[in-house]
Amino acid sequence: MSDIIQLLPDHVANQIAAGEVVQRPASVVKELLENAIDAKATRIQLLVKDAGKTLVQVIDNGFGMSVTDARLSFERHATSKIASAEDLFQLNTKGFRGEALASIAAIAHVEMKTKREADELGTLLKIEGSEVTAQEPIVTPVGTSIAVKNLFFNIPARRNFLKSDQVEMRHVIDEFQRVALAHPSITFTLHHNGNTLFNLPNANYRQRIVGVLGSKANEKLVPVNEETEIVKISGFVLKPEFAKKSRGEQFIFVNDRYIKNSYLNHAITAAFEGLLRERTHPGYFLFLEVDPKTIDINIHPTKTEIKFDNEHDLYAIIKSTVKHSLGQFQIAPILDFQR
Ligand code: ADP
Ligand code: MG
């Protein structure tokens, strides 16, 4: 037999990559919101139909794209955010892989409208399963609107494996809340099937948390603040009496990015030692700022897991800071109702 290895055509490679990047409508929500933030938008609207199965649309007032960039943005490994490997160690954007739009366009019907401030006319681009079906100039406001319709239209197995609208919408709301909490200065709205679920004006961290959790949250919050050589910590923990059976209200952000890290979660829980009822989990919203050189974000496509150089030091600092904050607010009497 002759040589048998061949390079996969782009649309096949894109579909494979999409399998990693896009698990469900909520993954599309995350990628589009992050792109809007990277485009320096101050106002971001998320519109969703049928829990995102029929439509996920993000409209931003960011810097938009030129005709050429609009077209290029759907190519794999096409990004404006890094130019060299060194840039990976000093990231200050959410994206950098240049994979999201190519992946999404491989498995959905995408319609993009975009315009830069300097351009008279914007660009309309339609792509279905990696194939451009329309590209024309249009009148459209400065910024970008990307509508992702009929997710997994060409992968019935994936489509059939989506959960109920209720479950998928829960995931969509989770992603929306994480991004909205990390960026209080940006105005966000979320509409589902024509109903307004969230309308969050630009705010500070406390106001944003209240906007997301509801007005009752305000009196539950204990501020946490500390600055050391390796980390600046700000944010809030919920008073121990508001600890819950579920872990729903636990948020750690690193450099404005929501992350999952069970080791650091443990540091916070440990700070609550003796203050919690059995089998309850404390609520918290902690914003950590660290030198980008001391973390590695590039270990997973969705970037929710990151690696810290100095995890042990962080653990100790977080634990003692939270403990100190709880002490300052004289949370100790809560111990009474434990007995
Ligand atoms: P990445 O975000 O990793 O660069 P994406 O596939 O998400 O990759 O986007 C590709 C490129 O398209 C981005 O680098 C950016 O230049 C451009 N882009 C995507 N979304 C927007 C947007 N909402 N506004 C302006 N430019 C955008
Ligand atoms: Mg992106």
TrEMBL record:
What is the documented function of this protein? Answer: This protein is involved in the repair of mismatches in DNA. It is required for dam-dependent methyl-directed DNA mismatch repair. May act as a 'molecular matchmaker', a protein that promotes the formation of a stable complex between two or more DNA-binding proteins in an ATP-dependent manner without itself being part of a final effector complex.
Q: Which UniProt keywords apply?
A: DNA damage, DNA repair, Endonuclease, Hydrolase, Nuclease
- The keyword Iron is annotated on this UniProt entry: no
Quick one: signal sequence residues?
none
Q: Describe the location of the DNA mismatch repair protein S5 domain by residue ranges.
A: 209-327
Q: Which GO terms describe its molecular function?
A: endonuclease activity
**What is this protein's name?**
DNA mismatch repair protein MutL
Q: What is the lineage of its organism?
A: Bacteria, Pseudomonadati, Bacteroidota, Flavobacteriia, Flavobacteriales
Q: Does the keyword DNA damage apply?
A: yes
In terms of the parent sequence, the fragment covers 1 to 339 of 621
Which family does the similarity line name? Belongs to the DNA mismatch repair MutL/HexB family.
